[in-house]
Amino acid sequence: MIRIQNIYHMLAYAFQILKNQGYASCSTEKFANTADLLSAILVKSVNIQLKRGLGRTYIENTGPLSCLKGKIDVNESIKGQTIIKHQLICTYDDFSVNSYMNRILKATIELLLRYDIPKTRKKSLRNILFYFKNVKKINIFDIDWKLRFNRNNQSYQMLMSVCYLIIKGLLQTTAEGSVKLLQFLDEQQMCRLYEKFILEYYRKHYPQLKATASQIDWALDDGIGTMLPTMKSDITLNYKNKSLIIDAKYYAHTTQFNYNVTKLHSNNLYQIFTYVKNKAAFGGDVSGMILYAKTDEEIQPNNTYMMSGNKISVMTLNLDYDFAMIAKQLNGIADEFLTIKQ
């Protein structure tokens, strides 16, 4: 279980721009569902962007013009006999709002209007849609999310991230090719948000730590690592000679039940053990933790093991608590395992 309001807090850490004053009302407002929350964030974000002006890009156009512009296509002008109408075929660049990112924004707004969100939110979305009348439609199933950001469009970075969550969370193609609306944010998307939230929380509140999603080197005897997979932690906290590797997991079930016995997920435990032992081989005090998002299951893991000289813990974080309690849990992890006094 997770409170909708806590999804806002998680997004606020994942996208620090949400800490700005313009989004303050989202931290106290009540939302009907997650789509309602993200649509509220999108409305505020787009309104802020509208005050700056919608991003524009140069788009190449070719067509008959009465006034010369750009490059004249003589051959096409002769073939089309446009000279009869006192026109020439020209290829020219138009500085247009019909950019790829604006097309994604328009598609996201139109998608939200089909979903179960309050009428007042839909009215706000329709008001925004008016400013996209010169933006063409885009097939949401063909969107290339490998977007490039620079100084001119960096204000769109958070916007595109929210659009990604909305589109991926609301849509699914059935076997017949039809579109199905989902409940919102599947396990995989929530897992990514959960990881990013924890990482950014420690970066903000524990500046004395070095909090990274770092790569872990294999401890190789001969230095030959051809074809070995990359090991990358979700969160690694470093303080002096101490390291805590956290593997954040957002699952529907935090344990597995086999032969009437409740056990930990073996693959998760093998993974964190591998991370810890390889990092420890290079020296320092290394600990590991699997931090599950708590479910409503009766049995929740809360165990600590000493494995070949390293501490490995399996714990849960209750995302259905008031956010102040969530922060207290995260602070407790840093204080206990890294012996930090704030």
TrEMBL record:
Biological processes annotated in GO: DNA restriction-modification system
InterPro entries reported for this sequence: McrC, McrC_bac
Domain of life: Bacteria
One Pfam family this sequence matches: McrBC
NCBIfam families: PRK09736.1
Protein name (record): Putative 5-methylcytosine-specific restriction enzyme subunit McrC
Lineage: Bacteria, Pseudomonadati, Pseudomonadota, Gammaproteobacteria, Aeromonadales
